[in-house]
Amino acid sequence: MSSKICEHCQKQFSLKQNCVRHEKTCRFKSVKQELEKKCQDSSVLLKQLEEKDEQLLQKDKQLQEKDEQIAFLKTIIGSNVGKQKQGKTINNNINNNIIINNITTKDVAEFLEPIKFEEIKSALQDLNYKHIRKGMKGIAEYLCENALNGKIITTDSSRDILAYNTNQKKLIRDPKGSFLLNKTLRDNSDILLDKITKENQWMQDNQSDDEFEGEIRNVEMLNSIVKNVQKNKTVENNEFCNIVKKSGINTLNKIIHDNIETNQLEE
Ligand SMILES: [Zn+2]
């Protein structure tokens, strides 16, 4: 019967009254209570630690956001120093902290037209031999002039962070433009490989004295990049990144000048 077993130490008794008497002085009772208290204390500590952890995570996130904002401002400053608009040097504007501090990636993103992947697809149909012969550089330059024109900003020039809106009007951070590059090549690998093969063949058939040597190398390099993407490999490409990044800095500049900086100066 359970009434004959000490609830603290589980010792058995033949008589219930002995058990009751024992329970009042059972040394396990105090030990148990002490343990329970310690348990409670440590769960409180654990909870506090978890809260601290959460706070640290938040701080980390805030620091990261600050880092990103600083890098963004550096990109703006780096692309503006020395340039002039309406007789005022941008250096004067930079010295005016109010103006520069107010600009965030979000502000700029509001003026950014979204990238449309169908537009990239249809633009690539018109890619010509001059672009193909320049390899990846040619494709990047061509896209920056039309389907991607004014749609990408460089938010961190030193870390090669690009950003753009898609149809959901959500700003996407894209380090090195890697996502954009891989999606573009993957979505359009058939048309690209077709153009690449034709141009390569034409140059091989028509060249004399290695006159297309450099171009053939560009085209073969491009060919292997597109084929890798087609096999579901993820590629990175510095030529693509650098050209899009440069275009992204120009777009950032233009948006600030046309929409943000001038408005604030007139206030
Ligand atoms: Zn006991």
- Main sheet overview: 3 strands, antiparallel
**H/E series, N to C?**
HHEEHHHHHHEEEHHHH
User: Which blocks of ≥5 consecutive residues have pLDDT under 50?
Assistant: 84-98, 263-267
Bound molecules: zinc ion
Rg from C-alpha positions?
Answer: 33 Å
State mean pLDDT (0 to 100 scale): 88
- The structural domain count equals 2
Shape: elongated
Give the spatial strand order of the biggest sheet.
3-4-5
> What structural class do the secondary elements suggest?
mainly alpha
Helical fraction:
55-70%
Strand content: 5-15%
C-alpha end-to-end distance = 88 Å
Count of β-strands: 5
- List the total number of helices: 12
Structure description:
The longest helix is centred in the N-terminal third of the chain and has 54 residues, at 27-80. Helix 8 (136-145) packs parallel to helix 12 and helix 10 (189-206) packs antiparallel against helix 11. By secondary structure, the chain is mostly helical. It has 2 domains: 2-68; 104-266, no CATH class. Residues 84-98 and 263-267 have low confidence and may be disordered. It contains 12 helices and 5 strands. Helix content is 67%, strand content 7%. Strand 1 and strand 2 (88-89) form a beta hairpin. The protein is elongated, with a radius of gyration of 33 Å. The N and C termini lie far apart (88 Å). A 3-stranded antiparallel beta sheet has the order 3-4-5. A two-stranded antiparallel ribbon has the order 1-2. Residues 6, 8-9, 11, 22, 26, 28 line the site of zinc ion. Zinc ion is lined by residues 6, 8-9, 11, 22, 26, 28.
